[in-house]
UniProtKB/TrEMBL annotation:
Residues 3-69 form the HMA domain. GO terms for molecular function: metal ion binding. The keyword Metal-binding applies. Keywords: Metal-binding. Pfam families: HMA. The keyword Glycoprotein does not apply. This is Copper resistance protein CopZ. It comes from Gluconobacter aidae. It comes from the Bacteria.
């Protein structure tokens, strides 16, 4: 089943940052779409909940070097 999650992301300062994060999220197995915007800092991710969890996606954001604001 396809689900959607949006994270507020802190720490991105340029289009290169948002592009790097979007690429990392798009390459996660189970992610069908990832749209990352610099202003506002957020990542909207469409994913298959049988293949990946929101917690795992949050870890990807953090592994790239940014913070998820909850």
């Amino acid at each position: 089943m396809v689900s959607m999650v949006t994270f507020r992301v802190d720490g991105m300062s340029c289009n290169g940052c948002s592009g790097k994060l979007q690429s990392a999220l798009s390459n996660v197995p189970g992610v069908s779409s990832a749209q990352v915007t610099l202003d506002p800092g957020q990542a909207a991710i469409q994913y298959d909940e049988q293949k990946v969890t929101p917690v795992a996606l949050q870890h990807v954001v953090e592994d790239v070097g940014f913070d998820v604001i909850v």
